[in-house]
# Entry
Amino acid sequence: MGKLVEKIAKLQNYEEFADLNWTGSFEDYLKIVRENPTVTRTSFQRVYDMVLSYGSETYSDNKKKLIHYNFFDDPMGDGRDSIFGLDIPLMRLVNVLKSAAMGYGTEKRVLLLHGPVGSSKSTIARLLKKGLEGYSRSNAGALYTYEWNLPEALLHITGGEDVFRCPMNEEPLRLIPAAWRESAFADLGLHQEDRPLKIKGDLNPACRLIFRELMNHYKGDWAKVMEHVRVKRLVLSEKDRVGIGTFQPKDEKNQDSTELTGDINYKKIALFGSDSDPRAFNFDGEFNVANRGIIEFIEILKLDVAFLYDLLGATQEHKIKPKKFPQTDIDEVIIGHTNEAEYRKLLNNEFMEALRDRTIKVDIPYITRLKEELKIYRKDFSQRRVAGKHIAPHTLNMAAMWAVLTRLEEPKKHDLSMLQKLKLYDGKTLPGFTQDNVKELRKETIREGMDGISPRYVQDKISNALVSQRSESSINPFLVLNELESGLNRNSLITNEELRKRYTELLAVVKQEYEEIVKNEVQRAISADEQAIKRLASNYIDNVKAYTQKEKVKNPYTGQDEEPDERLMRSIESKIDIPESRKDDFRREIMNYIGALAVEGKTFSYDTNERLHRALEQKLFEDQKDTIKLTSLVSNAIDKETQEKIAVVKERMIRDFGYNEESATDVLNYVASIFARGDSRE
# Structure
């Protein structure tokens, strides 16, 4: 063996390999069950325990207690399939799993994830499948199956095979005849207090035949039959088609129920002499494959009616009916997903009434909270993943804002704008609104989150902007917003002209919001002279102190005592909308705050009061903007002094706000044009 191969070989975990490939006698397995009865869990119990195994966090949202299950952060895949902003629907899903695990009836239902396109339905199903695979490889999630090992004298029973694996990976305890099980479990002390050991169902047809033949051979001596049983660790794997099944409907001409329940192996008919001999049957349908685990039905409501009976039996009775064989017991979680259009068809199809009755629908809506929607795009378009292009600040934020706005319903009360409603949902505070108001807003909606723009559409348009030739080194919000707008005319999901108009109007709302944000940023960059702000803050506090204590202020230049500078104080207070009638209250509030800090031995700093800090920045900006002559950028008539000042502002934009050279220049030019428009109006 070469050195390079040896180096790679050192990466192998031999202990893990031995654990996952464990084999032992039936006696050995009974000892394992006695020590750890959880190895015998049903599929629902295992899936529920798997979700819980990753932990959870409880938090409060608008006075409502919510649980965030860490499993849906996709810790198995480093967050690639993370689910954001859907804690409430996921809580409902986990509650269904819990009820099924407890045997309260929901284990006899199809779990139907229902929602608009791109709402994470298939991602949730994929996470559950992937999670169950990983869980089966852990000690906590271990499960077992068995195979038959026969001597040469008995090979005729299996058609010449000395090892015949259980084709449906059944629980080994099913080998104990049903009539004995309860007594056997009690005698062996296998019951748990919270979960009594219950092994339901019989052997599959092939194993049942082998078991019967061996019982006949040994004249009913069950213990001797068990000597031919080899129990082994079962590792679930979608790729290997073990315990994880996926079914996707095809066109009606190509649909065949054998894809679900298996088919006859015609090559073996000659060996066993009959097409009804279970040993001549391939137990390779998706229901067979998914036994002990989970089966996903992609677009389940596109199933042909011919499949309906197989699905109903599998759901309600936990049985399937393979061709020419008796009903066969299965144990698996059946999860499907469908979009709105297909679900409406189900409601209107009388032939599907039985399916509706056996379905638990879990709505998976779009995200309606901005910060959660933003996480999707930050994950997909992080600077690490986007090579060679800088994403200007607010680009992803504005795209996410528009997406969320399209999903919100118009507020019925409170005289709110859509943008204000979005901000309230996002946890922002607005004067006169409480948490109770936000709860009321959510309650008055009917279908909020079930309509609107899909994250996929936004992702596609951001991708278009990134490969566009219109920007050399960066993309900005306007580039992306223009992509979003131009795509509306070509979006096949938007068939309503009125809806297209609404989405376009919401883009205008977002553009206006972006304008305010960048104006603010440029203002802050211009006024980011810390010493100047400190001087202004100190001057303001001196005047406020004198005003509240009815004293005079010493002029630093003349040394004369003067009346507090009312014009200066109001020029600052007006920036944060403090009316004349409330100026005394605000000034006393500031002084009380300074006094409280002093009692604690702390010194007041202007940046500890957000409102005052903002007012000082705006005042400084007003004082300095004329000296910088930002509007001259529009005319390109820039003298050397102004050029130097603008260069300083640009450097602050890059340093403090995350712009690069190109995007900072674009923003300054854009804000300059806004000021130029304002000047011309004046």
The CA atoms of residues 398 and 514 lie 7 Å apart.
